[in-house]
Amino acid sequence: MSLKLPSTAKRSAMKSTLVPRDAIDRRTVLRGSGVAVALPWLSAMQSVGASEDTRPARRFVSVSIGLGLLGENLFPEDAGQSYQTSRYLKSLQDVREKFTVVSGTHHPGVSNGHRAEASILTATPIGNSGAAKNTISIDQLMAKHLGQATRFPSLVLSTGGSQSPSYTDTGAMISAESSPATLFARLFIDDSEKEQVRQANRIRQGRSIMDVIGEDAKRLERELGSGDRQRLDAYFTSVRELEKHMAANERWAKLPKPSVDAKRPVPPSQNDVVGCLSMMMNVMKLAIQTDSTRFITLNIPGSNHRLPIEGVDQGHHTLSHHGRDPEKLAQLALIEDELVATYGEFLRSLASFEEPSGNLLDHTSVLMTSNLGNASNHDNRNLPVLIGGGGFKHGQHLAFDTKNNHPLATLFVSILQQTGLPVGDFSSGTTTMSGLEPTV
Q1: pLDDT tens digit sequence for 201-211
Q2: Residue 149 pLDDT more than 70?
Q3: How confident is the prediction for the chain on average, in pLDDT?
Q4: pLDDT tier, 101 (very low <50, low <70, confident <90, very high otherwise)
Q5: Is-contact 163 173, C-beta < 8 A?
Q6: Residues contacting residue 381 through CB under 8 Å, at least 6 positions apart
Q7: Could you give the angle at which helices 226-254 and 193-221 cross, rounded to 10 degrees?
Q8: φ and ψ at 279, to 5 degrees?
């Protein structure tokens, strides 16, 4: 696979080789006549011996399965690193040291079966009616704070339909892209020159509108009380954030997209969920390799398509509601074998792509999970969890209590910290996940 990234301008500023013996504190504030002004970063604030941060970029990929995975075929009987492999993990034996299987987890308070799809990456109970407000999902939290380094702050994808587990900080669901061909075009096929100009003008017009609103709001501020001025200040903050996003979009609109040695994919049959999953993950791999984005969610929604797998003659949804029928369980296992094997192929593809300080998998946390622990009775406990890469200690089965489940959101805290967000909690996760230790 050959990749060609867009060229970047060389830095024009040169670093000073002279560092003062007593470096200025970065928190230094100038005070006088009742005014305090915080200084921007200055070269004099660099500590002696400090060097530029050259840590590799951190990434996160989530694959969520709407109809779950059979725990009896996924979870090993033994905990720890010497576990005997389960049926579903046999296809991953060559990458055993690159992932961890986690059992005995859930999102406290989250129930209502399929409705819990909305909570899998937010860990927020939203109720059966959907009336309660959702919160930001882990991928969008990363994209909000770290996503501006790439052309696409995040990619929200699906193997069918527009439903996704990705939610904004206002609790709005982000619609998913379900066409691998359309995704490939967005990532790697440049728009015509006329279309590029049109997009840039549209972005520029949006920025000028925000400037007008900002000036009007400043004039209004003088007529407001203190409470309204605080609200207006919060509004100004959101305006400035939007302007930054618009400026970033304008910059990317002018840059050529990466070129890749791959053809635009031709989507398989709508019934071939595994084929679509594999094709979508191949494009996802290219997106990560070219650093087009660092945060991706892929949803595999529940459907009753009959997958083109030998030995399967019933729909996926029907089989997931097996009621312990042996024939249904056998066919369901054939489908889920393929889903887990495709996850393993994705891990291998990232591990084979070398970076200066390791490989892509070392720097990418890859989660596979579901909102259902047992789809047959719509149970949202004992969720299936595989976490690969990301610089964690792997090759183990972390087995938590199957009766008194551990909060899955502790894994989210671990991933957030490893990705570069120094958070101490996320929803029901108030600590990092015990046993999942970072190694790099």
Answers
A1: 655 555 555 56
A2: yes
A3: 82
A4: very high
A5: yes
A6: 106, 373, 374, 405
A7: 170
A8: -65, -45
Give the global pTM: 0.78
**Could you give the C-alpha distances from 302 to 100, 317, 324, in angstroms and in order?**
25, 6, 19
pLDDT bucket at 7, cuts 50 / 70 / 90: very low
First to last CA, the chain: 27
- Is the model more confident about 185 or about 220? 185
Burial per residue of 182-212, b for 16 or more beta-carbon CB atoms within 10 angstroms, e otherwise? ebbebbbeeeeeeeeeebeeebeebeeeeee
- Which residue from 200, 322, 320 is spatially nearest to 253, judged by alpha carbons? 200
31 or 255, which is more confident: 255
- To the nearest 10 degrees (0 to 180), the angle between helices 326-351 and 273-289 is 20
pLDDT > 60? residue 369: yes
Strand-strand pairing, 364-370 and 59-65: parallel
Closest of 214, 232, 210 to residue 223, by C-alpha: 232
Apex 173 CA angle, 199 and 154, nearest 5: 50
The H or E element that residue 364 is part of is strand 364-370
The burial class, CB within 10 Å (0-12 / 13-18 / 19+), for 231 is: exposed
User: Which residue(s) pair with 167 in the sheet?
Assistant: 173
Compute the C-alpha angle 144/150/153, nearest 5°: 35
Q: How far is CA 438 from CA 54, 193, 278, in A?
A: 18, 46, 29
Per the rule left: phi > 0, alpha: psi between -120 and 50, beta: everything else, 381 is: beta
CA distance 234 to 142: 21
Residues ≥6 apart with Cβ < 8 Å to 435:
396, 398
pLDDT tens column, 216-241:
666 777 777 776 776 666 556 555 55
Helix (H, G, I), strand (E, B) or coil at 219: helix
The neighbour count for residue 13, using CB atoms within 10 Å, is 5
**10 Å Cβ neighbour count for 393?**
14
The single-letter code of the amino acid at 345 is E
Q: pLDDT, tens digit, for every residue of 300-312?
A: 998 888 889 999 9
- Alpha-carbon gap, residue 182 to 171, rounded angstroms: 26
Q: What is the pLDDT of residue 298?
A: 98
